[in-house]
Design brief:
It contains seven helices and no strands. The chain is an all-alpha fold. Helix 2 packs antiparallel against helix 6.
C-alpha cells in the first residue's frame, strides 16, 4: 500500500495548491511551507552544484512582473528535495492527477517476505493440528 497524506492534511494542502495560479506560486509556497530562508535554500542548491545565489533565487521566486528571472529547470529536483513536494503536487493537480509515494525495493521485498512467512505459519499450524489429531488416535 502506498503512503498517502492524512486526508485532512491532503485536502487542506490541495485547497491551498488550487489557489496557486502559476508554477512560480507553487515554488514560493514550497519555500514558505519549508520554513527555510531563501539564503539557506540557495546555499543548499549551491551545495548540490547549482550556481544560484540568494539574489538570483529571490528574483526567480519574485511575483513582480518586471522581474523576468525564471527558476532554472535543472534545479527543480534539488529544490523539491530541499523544501517539499508542493511543486510536484501542483503540477500533478494541474493535470488532474494526485501523487502517492511509491514503495522502495526494500519495502516491497519486506512485504513479500512477510506474506511468505504468513503462508508458512498457516501451513505449520495446519501440520501441528494434523499431528495432534494423529497422536490422539
Amino acid at each position: 500500500m502506498q503512503e498517502k497524506l492524512p486526508l485532512s492534511e491532503e485536502t487542506a494542502d490541495q485547497e491551498i495548491l488550487i489557489r496557486c495560479k502559476t508554477f512560480k506560486d507553487a515554488l514560493r509556497l514550497a519555500r514558505e511551507k519549508s520554513g527555510k530562508s531563501e539564503q539557506l535554500i540557495s546555499y543548499e542548491l549551491n551545495d548540490k552544484g547549482h550556481k544560484i545565489d540568494q539574489s538570483t533565487l529571490s528574483l526567480a521566486l519574485s511575483d513582480n512582473p518586471s522581474q523576468k528571472k525564471n527558476f532554472p529547470t535543472e534545479a527543480i529536483d534539488d529544490f523539491v528535495n530541499i523544501t517539499n513536494e508542493i511543486p510536484l503536487r501542483y503540477l500533478a493537480l494541474k493535470r488532474g492527477y494526485g501523487l502517492i509515494k511509491l514503495k522502495s525495493t526494500l519495502e516491497l521485498e519486506l512485504e513479500k517476505e512477510r506474506a511468505e512467512k504468513e503462508e508458512l505459519q498457516k501451513k505449520l499450524t495446519y501440520f501441528e493440528e494434523l499431528i495432534s489429531k494423529v497422536n490422539k488416535k
